Amino acid sequence: MFIDYQSMSVWELLAFNAPGWGGTLLKGLALSLEIAILGFLIGLLIGIFGALGKLSKNIISRDLWACYTTAVRAIPELVLILLIYFALPSALNALLNAIGLEEIEINAFIAGVLVISFVQGAYATEVIRSAMMAIPTGQIEAAQAFAMPKFKILYRISLPAMLPHALPGLSNLWLIATKDTALLAVVGFTELTLAARQAAGSTKEQLLFLSVAGLLYFIISLLSDVFFKYLIRRANKGQMHG
Fold first, then answer.
1. Dist. CA 173–CA 126, nearest whole Å
2. Would you say residue 241 has pLDDT above 70?
3. pTM of the model
4. Angle of helix 22-55 relative to helix 108-133, nearest 10 degrees?
5. N or C: which end of the chain has fewer CB within 10 A?
């Protein structure tokens, strides 16, 4: 069915119901946020283990985590997306075939989460490592003097004490995660950027839809900034009263 987009007003083009594209843009935004949140949280978990590994006395652990962080910072995210989306399934399926198991398929959503997690984990490792190094050694030594187990020292002392130092860097990593989801458009995943490009291509209103996509990213950035500033104030307040 032919739709005359040229005769439609801006509000009609941005309507949530067809033939408007507002609903498609919001679905793309929701998918972008899902991938960003999952990637950021998994990356944060990787970062904690990575920081502990780089701070450990085990030279093999330190070297392995150093190789990981160096490689991720050297390889562009776009290349990582293509590797995980195209090369990783081929390698895994070749291995599965060799041992007589069924092949698997990595869709664009899973590939996106894997890439964001992988990249975020490397940067989070450095952020958390630096934050842990800023913890006064007396706190750790006091806990060790009371024979507190290492795991208990980690979640009772190290993690809470490093939080005020880590939050500013982690807030930047979150914003990077939200913007990196736009790279998934190259593998045909309809996140916000690709949804805006599809709308712009169909309606010939490139300026309108790409500006709306930029505005949505900007709103997410503003809300995220408010949220992280709140967390930083709470963390610093806890430190002052600790």
1. 11
2. no
3. 0.88
4. 40
5. N
